[in-house]
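Hi D.,

Good news: the full-assembly prediction came through. Inputs first.
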Amino acid sequence: MSIIKEVIKNFFSKPSTIEYPRKAEIPVEKDFRGEFYADLKKCTGCTLCALECPARAIEMKKLPENIKLKHNPRGLYPVVNYMTCVYCYRCVRVCPVDAFITTPNYKLSSVKEVYSEEKTLKTLGMG
Amino acid sequence: MAEREATTVIKIPITLDIPIGPQHPAIHEPVMLKIYADGEEVVHAEVNTGYNHRGIEKLMEKNSFYKDKFISSRVCGICNAVHENCYTRAVEYLAGLEPSPRAKYIRVLAMELERIHSHMLINAIMAEVIGFDTLFMYIMRDRELVMKAKEILTGNRVEAEIHMFGGVRRDIDDVKKDKIMDILKKLEPRLKYYRKLFEEDPTINSRLAEIGILKPETVLGYSLLGPILRGSGIKSDVRAEDKYDAYGEIPWTVITRPEGDSLARMLVRWDEALESLEICKYILEHLPQGPAVVDERKLPRVFPPGESYARVEAPRGELVYYINSVGGANPYRVKIRTPSAVNIINSAFSYVGHSIADVPVILVSYDPCISCMERAIVLDLKNNVEKRVPLKYIAQKKVRL
Ligand code: SF4
Ligand code: SF4
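Then the structure:
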C-alpha cells in the first residue's frame, strides 16, 4: 500500500490551511471559552472571583466617582487582564450572582495588555 | 590508579560525542540525548534533562486545592484532561466526593478524545522524523477533527478544564452529541487508513521495523509504561486494572502486540486510537441520564487531612498523583509521577547498538513529553551529581581548565 493515491487526490483538493485572519474566520462553538467581562448591573464587588482566579488575572478596581451602585456598597468591580487570563472560567463559575457575561470571542491577541475595564463599565449603559 | 585513568582516556578519542537536542528539530522538546558513537553505531547514550524545569509541585503546595486543579491540567498540554482527572480523583478520594454516572462518562469521553489526538500527533511526528512530511501533514490535518470534537465537548481545543471535584463543569446536549458523532464517523476511515499505511508502507516499515526492540523482561525490568509496555506484549493498562470512572462499564479491550519494536509501538497507538473511538461512540450512545455538572459555589472550601493516591492511563502510560493534606485549603504536598519521566530517563540503554539515524526514531517511538517529565527530573539529576562532579565544578568555575 502506498500513499501515492492519497497524494494525487489531495493534489486536486482545496487546501486545508485556513488563511486566518486575512481571508477566513475560524468558526467556533457558541459556548467556546472566550472573552468575558463582568456585568456591573449584577456584580456586588465581593472579590471572590479575584481570590479564586488561578492565574491572578483579576484585579478589583474602584468604580469611577460618578457611579454609585446600591447592590455594590464597596464600589469594587473586577477587571480581567486578558493577557494573563488562561480562560479557565473559574471566576465565571464561582461568582455568587453569575455576573460574568461570556462570549466565544477568541480574537484576543495583541501586542499590549488588554483589560476588560471598558467593556465592564459599558454594561451600565452609560459608557 | 594510573591504569584506570588510562582506560578512560582511551575511550574518549574513539567515540564521537553527538548531542541530539536540546533544541532538536526532530523531537520539538527540550531534552538532550548525548550520544556516544563509534562510527555510525551508538555505544552509549545519556539523557540530559533540566531545560524546562517549572517547579509545578512547589507551586501546587502554595495554592489552594481548587487553583491546583487548573495548575495540574497545565502540567502537559497534550494530556491535560488525564492530569486533571488524576488530580481531581485524588482530591475526591480525600474528600469523599463521588461524581454522578453521567459525569463519569463525560470525563472518559474527554480523556479518550485526548488519547486519539495524542496518538495521532506522535504518529505524525514519527512520519516527520523518518522524512515523510506529506504524511505528517495529512495526519495533522485529520487531527483537527478531534480537536474540534474536544472543542464542542469542553469549550476549548486544547485545555479541557472539564473536571471539577464531584463531577464535571460542562454537560453535553443532543445537538453536541450528534456533532461529535459526525466527527467520529468522519475520523474512523482516516484512522483505519493511517493504521494500514503504517503497517504496509515499505518506507515506514524499513525505518521502524526491528528498530529499538524491547523484550518483555527488559520493559518490565526498566519499568517502562504505556504503549511501550503493550508494544512488547505485556497486557497492562491502568484503565483495565483500576476501572476508574466509567471504564468498568464500557466494553473495550487492551491492545497488545508481541514484536516490541518501534513499529509495534506505533501500531499499538493506532489500534488504541481506534479502540478509543469505539469507546467515544459507546459513550455517546449510552450516556446515562441525570445531573453531571457540579455547582462550584457549593463545594467545600477546606479539605480534611489525609493522604490519597490516584493513577490514570495517560496516552503515554501510567500517571500517578499523590496528595498529602494536613487539612485546610492548601495541600501539604502533591507528588506527580508522569509516564515520560520513566519512559525517557530509563530508556537510555535502548539506543545502544543502533545507528545514529535510528536514535530519533526510537525516541519518538517512546512518545516523549518533556514538559510533563521535567519536574520529576530534579531528583534524578541529584543522583547523577556525584558522577558528574567535575562538570559541575567546571560550570561553577571551581575548576580551571
Ligand atoms: S477565566 Fe480563569 S484565569 Fe481568567 S480571569 Fe477567570 S479565573 Fe482567572
Ligand atoms: S465574584 Fe461576581 S459579584 Fe463577586 S466581584 Fe466577582 S463578578 Fe462581582
